[in-house]
Design a protein that fits this description.
- The complex is a heterodimer.
- Chain A is of the alpha/beta class.
- Chain A folds into two domains: 265 residues, Rossmann fold; 90 residues, formyl-coa transferase, domain 3.
- In chain A, 41% of the residues lie in helices and 15% in strands.
- Chain A is built from 18 helices and twelve strands.
- In chain A, the strands form three sheets. In chain A, strands 3-2-1-4-5-6 form a six-stranded parallel sheet, sandwiched between helices. In chain A, strands 7-8-9 form a three-stranded antiparallel sheet.
- The model of chain B has no long low-confidence stretch (mean pLDDT 96).
- By secondary structure, chain B is of the alpha/beta class.
- Classes of the chains: A alpha/beta, B alpha/beta.
- Chains A and B meet through helix 2, helix 6, helix 7, strand 6 and helix 8 of A and helix 2, helix 6, helix 7, strand 6 and helix 8 of B.
- Strand 12 of chain A pairs antiparallel with strand 6 of chain B.
Chain lengths: 411, 413
């Protein structure tokens, strides 16, 4: 795919180096790239970045879809940072850069020369954003952790699953995407500080901490001093009001009624115009406040509701909710999401020609800027795709130097 | 706080955010030093003043509200009165960013939409966070976080293998949209600095969620397979599970990606010699015998605490961590060393702990420095010092119940 014509973008004056480690660093750099920053993804020439082989099938050695998704809009350079020549080339890139994103534990970062001390000596204006499971300091700084472990550490898994059974993690790469988005936000904060100090700084983002501070830790007082433990409760939230996922004819619908009138409107949908008799004639239900109905009679009411719900398709129920202003939503699968008329009307999915997969529909940036719209300019790079363009074109290396680096396995 | 040295020092935000999505976005801006003015009405309270965790049931005692709205200033105003909206338009003219997460059309009805506000402040940055967007065939659909997660496809992937969909059962959409919107506001500020140009930004929460499962959208197109419920299974890692440990409902997460990690795990679990079986030596083998392998590991974890298992496995470089609840997080030595929760005194609730910033910057990152506003606590500062109204004018607005007068609440015993 050829690069589309340049339109102004908020970050199109910025140069970013991403040390390709994992999905979190890749998504952080993608968010910057989507707003116009030039991102050079640096990968190990021997193995490629770790995110190349995330979520592919065993036995397959090709690049996976997650890589294609989180690396579009980037340039790709291969560089063995365990060699002196590799470190020197990285230093040349860093001298021209505004931001470096990396995701190594402290000990490994020092080995590769991507620790803040080394990098800021090369370029004091550089912002270094690190995303690691537990942050760069503290007793767990060197711990090994994958998404399921961060989901556990972030007090998230403890809320997902059925009572008495194993806990479930957040699906796919949620853990990484959230820490990436927070890291990208903090990075822009660091840029604004640099505008008046002239200096870069180190931004240390812990994935577990992003979850605790932004998602799950708001009511810590209630947990610690009032012993209100939030525990998993299956398909219905342990909440004061009706809130859960219920079976219907062709799948599931999600219902949440935050106010009494929404609950009554929902019951009227189920009763096809009036509160159903089984509810209206049962004093236990009518004499309980809607706030407590879920806690007191949730299971019983669910069985009664499902008698009607399982005769109706989810899109019919969704439509009824829309007409009557009740928050009912179908549980969509991925195919249904891709075919969703609303998202397609909004042109949320855009065609991108990937060298490996061919033309696919990608979700575009969800941030819709009126003056500086985000575009997908190019697909994810192949390993070392832009070596010559960057090393010769940008850094002024000669063809001979490039050949030598290649011969020595540096690139 | 030295407000002059933080990322957003000197930036003022008019915050119409309510419930969790909007407030979680402006929380980030306030943490970075922006002066955030939270607009509230006593007639229609922010639901986060009364979450289930608010045990005293006073509008000034909700711990989640206190966390989401720390650092912000609070005003109370009646937006159903035209003079109220007129005051807010004048206030918007003194702000850099306006953020809202009302139902589509609400801000236009009040004359507080982007097109109106750019007349009074041409370079205003205006961020909207509607559930399904402000335009499109289903824009006007009532939507809260759980329904949005359902519509996005996320909920269809949460549940035990081969069973029913369970869903996340947490307001994931709110906080996801919050971070995305804060990022967008900062990018727009950078653009304004360079060009002098403000703009309107729409972050439809549904799109921000689908962006979080982009790889599944691509995978489906490549393989033709609709991803379903996988429980704790992962295509490239075995074991990959939460295992029951010693204690009351205590679990440990363990994940193995490489054969080297597997060998280390086998060594640590040497008193479960069946794990040494060659059939588990490769990923393919472990996948073929995953249930059996999970049984064996469960047998080993059952008599040990999640903490000691974590220590033993991490010592050997194997990814393991206890499944913590927020109480565990609070007491955890690592989190204490990093100051993940910090004490903050609230005028009604007294001493509290609040979740700290979500990042650490080596020089100037922002701070948690002011407790969440009481209803209308900063009316006089905002309408007097910022907007320039005289004390008499404010008193007149208060008498007309346009500005809802601040009433000092009783302090908790």
């Amino acid at each position: 795919m050829t690069e589309t014509k340049k339109q102004p973008q908020p970050l199109d004056h910025l140069k970013v180096v991403e040390i390709g480690n994992n999905i979190a660093t890749a998504y952080c750099a993608k968010m910057l790239a989507d707003q116009g920053a030039e991102v050079i993804k640096v990968e190990d020439p021997r193995t490629g970045a770790m995110d190349r082989t995330e979520r592919i099938l065993p036995g397959e050695e090709k690049t996976g879809c997650v890589f294609a998704y989180v690396n579009c809009n980037k340039l790709g350079v291969s560089l063995n940072l365990e060699t002196e020549a590799g470190k020197k080339t990285l230093a040349d890139l860093v001298r021209q850069a505004d931001i470096l994103v990396e995701g190594n534990r402290s000990s490994r970062a020092a080995e590769l020369g991507v620790d803040y001390e080394t990098l800021s000596a090369i370029n004091p204006r550089l912002l270094v954003t690190s995303i690691t499971p537990f942050g760069k300091t503290g007793p767990y700084a060197e711990y090994n952790a994958y998404a399921i472990n961060v989901s556990a550490a972030g007090a998230s898994s403890v809320c997902i699953g059925e009572p008495g059974r194993t806990l479930l993690p957040l699906p796919l790469s949620q853990v990484h995407f959230q820490s990436a988005a927070m890291a990208a936000t903090a990075t822009l904060g660091g840029l604004l500080v640099r505008d008046y100090t002239g200096r870069g700084q180190h931004i240390d983002v812990s994935e577990a901490e992003v979850w605790i501070t932004h998602f799950t830790g708001h009511a810590v007082i209630a947990y610690v001093f009032h012993n209100r433990r939030r525990i998993r409760s299956g398909h219905k939230t342990q909440a004061l009001f009706p809130n859960g996922i219920f079976r219907c004819k062709d799948g599931y619908i999600s219902l949440i009624a935050m106010r009494g009138e929404q609950w009554r409107e929902f019951l009227k949908i189920v009763g096809e115009g009036k509160i159903p008799d089984w509810y209206a004639n049962d004093e236990r239900f009518t004499k309980t406040s809607f706030r407590e109905i879920n806690l007191k009679y949730g299971d019983e009411i669910e069985v009664l509701l499902e008698k009607w719900l399982t005769t109706k398709a989810k899109d019919y129920i969704y439509e009824q909710g829309r007409i009557n202003h009740v928050a009912l939503a179908p549980v969509r699968d991925i195919r249904e999401v891709l075919e969703d008329p609303h998202l397609n009307y909004r042109k949320f999915f855009v065609d991108v020609e990937d060298p490996q997969f061919g033309k696919l529909q990608y979700p575009q940036s969800a941030l819709r800027f009126s003056k500086t719209p985000s575009v997908i300019r190019r697909p994810a790079p192949t390993l070392g795709q832009h070596n010559e363009e960057i090393l010769c074109g940008r850094l002024g290396y000669t063809k001979k130097e490039l050949q030598d680096l290649r011969k020595d396995g540096v690139i | 706080m030295d407000q002059n040295k933080y990322p957003l020092s000197g930036i003022r935000v008019l915050d119409f955010g309510w419930v969790a999505a909007g407030p979680s976005a402006t929380k980030i801006l306030a943490d970075m030093g922006a002066e955030v003015i939270k607009v509230e009405s006593r007639k229609r309270p922010d639901t986060t003043r009364f979450t289930p965790d608010n045990i005293e049931r006073s509008p000034e005692t909700d711990p989640a509200f206190h966390s989401l709205n720390r650092n912000k200033l609070g005003i109370t105003i009646d937006m159903t009165k035209p003079e109220g909206c007129e005051l807010l338009r004048k206030l918007a003219a003194k702000c850099d960013i306006v953020l809202e997460n009302f139902f589509p059309g609400v801000m236009k009805k009040f004359g507080l939409d982007y097109e109106t506000l750019r007349q009074v402040k041409p370079d205003i940055i205006y961020v909207s966070m509607p559930g399904l967007g402000t335009w499109g065939p289903q824009a006007e659909t009532p939507a809260y976080a759980p329904g949005l997660a359902a519509l996005s496809g996320l909920e269809s992937m949460v549940g035990y293998k081969g069973e029913r969909a369970l869903g996340l059962q947490q307001p994931y959409s709110d906080y996801n949209a919050g971070t995305n919107s804060a990022f967008a506001a900062l990018a727009a500020l950078i653009h304004r600095k360079r060009t002098g140009e403000g703009q309107n930004i729409e972050v439809a929460q549904i799109e921000a969620l689908v962006a979080c499962i982009g790889e599944a959208v691509l995978d489906y197109q490549v393989t033709g397979k609709v991803p379903g419920l996988e429980g704790n299974r992962h295509g490239r890692m075995v074991p990959h599970n939460n295992y029951l440990c010693d204690g009351d409902d205590k679990w440990v997460s363990i994940a193995v990606k490489t054969d080297a990690e597997w060998n280390n795990l086998v060594e640590v679990m040497s008193d479960a010699p069946q794990l040494e079986d060659k059939k588990f030596a490769t990923l393919e083998g472990r996948q073929a015998h995953e249930d059996e392998l999970n049984e064996l590991i469960s047998g080993w974890t059952a008599g040990r605490t999640a903490e000691e298992i974590t220590e033993m496995l991490q010592e050997a470089g194997v990814a393991a961590f206890p499944c913590m609840d927020i109480g565990d997080c609070f007491l955890d030595p690592h989190n204490q060393e990093r100051g993940v929760f910090i004490p903050l005194e609230h005028p009604v609730s007294g001493d509290e702990f609040i979740a700290n910033l979500s990042w650490k910057m080596s020089e100037s990152d922002g701070a948690v420095y002011r407790p969440a506003p009481m209803w209308g606590q900063h009316n006089h500062y905002v309408f007097g010092d910022i907007l320039g109204l005289s004390a008499e004018e404010i008193a007149r607005y208060e008498a007309a119940e346009v500005i809802q007068k601040f009433q000092e609440p009783e302090k908790k015993e």
